[in-house]
Design goal:
alpha/beta, homodimer, globular, eight-stranded parallel beta sheet, about 40% helix
């Protein structure tokens, strides 16, 4: 179904480099840097897990509730995705982590035999639920399914992730707003509140950040103590600190003083603008241990990913390709297209001519996509999700080629969307 | 993705029988009877069209709006389906038959390169829309999309179907209720009204049937005159007559006096019970020309299909596998299962152990299906639609084997659902 087109970078790393040939693993995760870019802090690498390896920089599609929405695992593979992300929060609430454990873990449950990463559930508990209490033991929130009160803390989060059995699991951290709400304009404030819940009167941002920092460090110890499957699952720590660079540095020092298989940058893209995302990532990524994979959580648009890769980030996840795909929005190298737009009614071209995704290479036209979305047909979201995930995987292929060749000019030439200044060209 | 299991009948007809080898077509459709069952009126055959051939008896999944809901064409093929059905009524309203013609026809539009059959749009115009007028020129109804008044008559129906470009197209017929509403009990009457619209006071069923009969014969002539693509598209006539066997015989005589590439039995399974369906089909099918394919429209459950095949029917279509699949209902050889049922929450078995559909052979468990339906995930309808279509294709494989071997005992042994007496065993 998926054919690599001429010009796209073939997956040759494993064939070309003897030191990356399969061998028995010495732990739950191994990371080799294959090539260090001569022109930026970007690196080309490979991560190995017990469920297979993936090339870095890597993009992980999001399979929230144990399914990348609308796609079979075969269809996810056909986009070139090598690792996916599941949300512990959703799987905890339904069908429950113990039910999944009884089925042999989430790989077996959803029939994805490649690497999986689960988040800790903390971010969703903060951002999606009515929070009744946050204290030193964690978060108590109301289930959106049956109204039951659920407690999530470091021990329970790790227990859930042990039950799910993903290859990479995340520390349970305290997630404060990244930006002082009093400094936000109205629209950004609304966005931040939508994601993080309403800000209380008398909220002291500096105090909240400091508290979250200290607590996240204490919780990391508790996560490590609770982790019962250290031979099979790699626990990543998460650096917080919002947009306060001193606090980011302190967080890196505290979190990275614990020897872990990988580290993540959290609390980014939670309401602040693209310039601040970039500033924080460019400051923080190079501080993380060089020999460990670096994961930037929940980011993002194409230019955010490229900037982060150039700062030394190795792993990304984002709901954009699937969420926007379900809403009829197509990512292309020149910007986004709204497939519901009437102007596509007679457009016989593929979503993006030259794209090698299953939808474009399968010959489905913009007119057909527009019809499917107009008629509310499930196949629209399915085809567009495949296209959009493949879009991000093609970006990663071209990024990896740029690193290997120490030349980013081809990337900028082939991806006009990277040259847009914050406002994507939309169709 | 789809592997034929041991015991399933391979598609060997084309290999074994020299007279079915590909050759240039003498018209839009050819039909060869390969084997006549020695124990019933059933026949094994092959229909050839310009978009390829399909074995008969054949089951056609329904792709109403130019998509078998939730499935890519590859996924439809993976169920073993060789021909699909599209609804002219839906495609006329959206995106419009002319728009599809501009895209090269419905095969190209939906990227299904195998045989396609379109219905005339008449049945849906009668059953789904507010009918404002039925007269000698056709039906005028209100579009459910934009409220526009639409006229559909023999000429326009054929024009639409010429524009869509399916391999088999259907005559535009007058569709009266098949049963006198005054003889129906309350629940069947409601069902019939739901399908055919409310019955008017003073409704004279015998008169309405006679009128529809005469009109359908007149309209067939007009359809033939309007048909502009006789070299590419085979026009089938439709026999009506409700449950009045004399009228059925008269309809057969009138319709089949016109030389057409195939004939259909219409007005069945529109509110009457399974016994009446069987009576009408067993009476009507053998009256149709032996050397032409016989198509029973909109039927049905497994036992209805087997009874009709034994009466000499060659083609079937039904929304059951996809519609019920979207609602969480799985067809199995022993009856239907409701995948939302809590009892499946810890059931690690496939939907139907031994089934070779993409969902069962892919190892997706009942517990996972139950989770997907509970969480409202699109993948549930997708997997269950594939299973259910494959269920009907497996039935057709076993039916064709029974015909070839003149032995139906194996079929009845392997398909307990065929022995159920009207009330399927449900999970």
């Amino acid at each position: 179904m998926f054919a690599v087109k001429e010009g796209a970078l073939p997956h040759l790393i494993e064939l070309l480099l003897p030191d990356t040939l399969p061998h028995s693993m010495s732990g739950p995760l191994e990371f080799d840097i294959i090539h260090q870019c001569g022109e930026s802090k970007a690196r080309l690498g490979v991560v190995r897990t017990l469920h297979g390896s993936f090339e870095t920089p890597a993009f992980m599609p999001v399979g929230t509730a144990g399914t990348v929405k609308g796609l079979t695992p075969d269809q996810v593979r056909s986009t070139g995705s090598e690792i996916i992300l599941n949300n512990a929060y959703h799987l905890l609430l339904r069908p429950g982590d113990e039910a999944i454990a009884r089925h042999g873990g989430v790989h077996e449950f959803m029939r994805w035999d490649g690497p999986i990463l689960t988040d800790s559930g903390g971010y969703q508990a903060y951002s999606m639920a009515d929070i009744n209490a946050v204290d030193e033991d964690g978060v108590t929130f109301r289930s959106f399914i049956d109204g039951a009160m659920i407690h999530l803390g470091p021990e329970r989060s790790i227990e859930i992730q042990n039950n799910l059995g993903a290859d990479i699991i995340m520390a349970f951290d305290d997630c404060p707003p990244s930006v002082d709400p009093s400094t936000l304009n109205e629209s950004r404030r609304r966005l931040a509140e939508k994601r993080m819940g309403p800000f209380k009167k008398g909220y002291d941002h500096a105090k909240r950040l400091a508290e979250a920092h200290d607590r996240t460090v204490r919780w990391l110890d508790r996560c490590m103590d609770a982790h019962a499957r250290t031979d099979e699952q790699a626990l990543f720590g998460i650096v917080q600190g919002g947009i306060d660079l001193d606090l980011r540095r302190a967080s890196v020092e505290a979190i990275c003083s614990v020897d872990l298989p990988g580290y993540a940058i959290g609390g980014v893209a939670v309401g602040e603008g693209p310039e601040l995302i970039r500033t924080v990532v460019e400051f923080t990524a190079p501080l993380l241990p060089e020999e460990k994979p670096r994961y930037l959580m929940g980011v993002g648009y194409e230019r955010d990913i490229v900037a982060a890769v150039r700062a030394g980030v190795d792993m990304f996840d984002c709901v954009l390709p699937t969420r926007n795909g379900r809403n009829g929005q197509a990512f292309t190298q020149s910007g986004r297209l709204h497939m519901r737009n009437a102007k596509f009614a007679d457009d016989g071209a593929e979503i993006e001519p030259g794209c090698d995704c299953p939808a474009c290479s399968g010959g489905f036209s913009r007119a057909y996509l527009r019809h499917l979305f107009a008629a509310g047909e499930m196949l629209g979201p399915t085809l567009l999700s495949m296209h959009n995930i493949r879009h991000f995987q093609r970006l990663m292929l071209d990024i990896r080629r740029s690193i290997r060749e120490n030349d980013w000019s081809l990337l900028l030439g082939a991806w006009p969307v990277l040259r847009c200044d914050g406002s994507d060209r939309e169709g």
